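#struct-pred

JT: dropping the chains for the assembly here, can someone run the whole complex?
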Amino acid sequence: MLASVTHILPVAAIRRERLMPTEGRIIARRGQQVNPSDIVAEAVLRPEHLLLDIGLGLGLSTKEADQYIQRRAGDEVGEGDVIAGPVGIGRRVVRSPRSGTVVVAGDGQVLMELEGEFSELKAGYSGVVVEIVDDRGVIIETTGSLIQGVWGNGKINYGLLNILAHDPDELITPDMMNVSLRAAVVMAGYCEDEKVLLSAEETPIRGMILASMASSLVPAALSVNYPIVLVEGFGKLPMNQEAFSVLSLSSRNEVALNAESWSRIGNTRPEIVVSTSEGAFPEVPTELASFAIGQTVRVVSPPYKSMLGTLTNLPQSLSRLPSGVLAKTAEIKLSNGETVQVPLANLEIIG
Amino acid sequence: MPTSLIDADSVLAIEIGTVSTRVILFDVVDGRYRFLGHGSVPTTASAPLNDVSVGVKEALDQLHDITGRVFFNPDGQIQIPSQPDGTGVDACVATVSVGPPLKVVAIGLLEDISTESAKNLATTTYAQVVGSMSLNDRQKTVSRLDTILQLRPDLIVVAGGIEGGARASVIDQLEAVGLACYLMPKEHRPEVLFAGNSALVQDVQATLGSITNLHISPNVRQSYESEQLTPSQPALAQIYRLVRSRQIRGIQEVDLWTGNNLMPAATAFGRTIRYISKEYAHTRKGVLGIDVGASATTVASAFSGDLILSIYPGLGLGENLPEILKLCPLSDISRWLTVDVSEMDLRDYIFNKAIYPNSLPITSIELAIEQAIACQAMQLAVKQASKAYPPDVLGSLPGLLPWFEPIIASGSVLTKAPNRNQTLMMVLNGLQPTGITTIAVDRNNLAASLGAAASVAPLLTIQSLEATNFINLCTIISPVGKAQSGTTILKVRMTTEEGQESELEVKQGTLATLRLPIGQAGTLQLTPLHRFDVGMGGLGRGGTVKVVGGVFGVVIDGRGRPLRIPAEPSRRRDALNKWLAIAGTG
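RK: done, full complex below.
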């Protein structure tokens, strides 16, 4: 059975697609070295149009007005430029009220696309642009520590990592937010207080890595201007030891937080990438794996949620869980020494 | 090759769901269709495979191991029809529910008439209305154009103009649609469904035909008073198929195997319920089908062959699960919990489940949480769906569920519950049926596949409905009326085929059962007291009714309608657990 894989790796070759939701302009070039906050592409996500009634403007019928339209589809026009006319003794004209591009002209009308506000796509990672994806974005390659999260608030940024958590489940409190964290990416355990998120925004920090968070904070987490990545999920869950170790050893290193939401069909997932020094040439981690004895796995649901363990047995037949549900299971020796039976559907391979 | 009077012998049904992909083989044995086996694997629409056909092929490998049937020819293609050596199948049908809801923009003339109908039409498939426009919203064409471009819908539904009604204003509404489609790259253009004044079809085709992917369906608003959504369902199913084929790799391949007849699972489920309602037309009651799935909760209500299909992606138990919190307070879910779980933990569970929708409940606590959520999802879905019921539908009181016969429950949370009394209580608490009805469980979750198969092998559908695929849980009698708790509200005398008699006095606020084994017939003499309505023709009217036994025999739900449960949490849990235990004694 194919298994879900979550990467928690001290060093990995990372290759990521960064795409805009619509066509736009690619700014980065192939081979370019980029920082996480570099803009690699831009597009007008909220297009604005203007429909000019030329017939009305010139006091002519639709058919007559067409003869006086001076601009054609694709023409760029500036504010005040003549679009149609002149007509009659008064030399009546229709001028463009704003600058933009004519997209349709005819039937006595001109449709213009106005110069809209560009939305910028940031690189999200420090690395090299290895491919341009049509008019949609780029593919970036980098090397570093990789920790995949389970939830993100949709923002992206980078900064130096500041470790606030001494234990994987340490509670973060508002008084821990102080000026020394300005421009840092902070790593903490569990957050249950909205004030923490708001104080962090005021500080301001550049990002927050949490083991877990109370789900009641989701609206606040979505509203803050910095990225938040949850490594484990919602409720008081300690960060798994592997991720905690990798991050704890990365204090003061540059860390990129791409807190995009986890969309399995859309191939996006919140990620933390810690830049590592050059010289290492690791392989791209595999995304495709089947369960096998000896693998390190994480349990994704209660009562063992977020616990890591080693897969010790894969029974062929279905097993009855304590809930009474029948399922294909695996035996897992948890890091606390306990051996438990967990449905395969509730496991993911860590690697 | 087909060898009997049955038109297509072997039928392969494929279901591509959000969580699982199943393949099911039916074949004719001794002149009747039989369910021969199934294979099931996790759906492979997501990374890293991003191709549903991989999962389908893996599930077919499983099915091959179970049945010995070879499905693929040497070219690696599925073999249709079957060959004399037994390779292949004679027909293939498929349903799909995986993928995000279609983003829909609804356009009409009047916001509360035709635009509302366009929105309602969208609820009959896996869709989410992301925007709406009406003549009376006073937006300019260019503003509508920008809205459409920003929203990037998968589908634009245009309604408007009753038959013989408005023309010019409908065509005006289309200007923004045409411009938006013209400005989009061809591969990103939405499908457009025109379901308005039929006199405008030629004009609409002339206006939009060359620049949009235009579909035409019968007018959803033939008059101001009536809304007809069902005739548009084939067009909507076709659109869903096209959009999904573009969005998810592998769908197109499976669609080809079906001869381009791949269906939305909910539409196929609705077909089955409609078919059953024709069979039960003599009861003058509707048939209710409820499917609680990962992608959506589907309510299929059919009245003498007329189907009302309502699909609620916001009430799916998968990635969309937190959406339920926008539709009801957390306390509405926690009230169904049989175990002590804080609202904070419940909320956290909902959000975590959305991250890992495939996960299974390991302990009884998680199971109780999932069943409580399912219960609330059913209640919200049916409440919303019932708004579209015909005004003359039979029932006890407005606001309560009308009379249905039978009620069919589908979806893993219901059909795979470890104990059937859990299924029964989810249905009783979530739907709160009234009058006399039978509750059946689609135990192999076949209803959607049978609906999809109806066009290629109608006998398969008919024979499977008669077979053991649908387990009769019980006949349920739910008296409606007002009385103090503990007051006797109904006297029941049951006589079995063998002549055994049993009697029961049902008190207000209680749940009671009479033992009647599966398949055994019995006669109930019902005598309601205090003008309670048991669905036999009026307040306080009783009589004799023939029933067939189910897993829990006959269950009399005297807990009241609407159901009132204790407000105090521990008393409430005690009551829920007591009812659960009583239900299991039938």
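JT: nice. Chain B has three domains: 11-96, 102-245, 267-583. Residues 1-5 of chain B have pLDDT under 50 and may be disordered.
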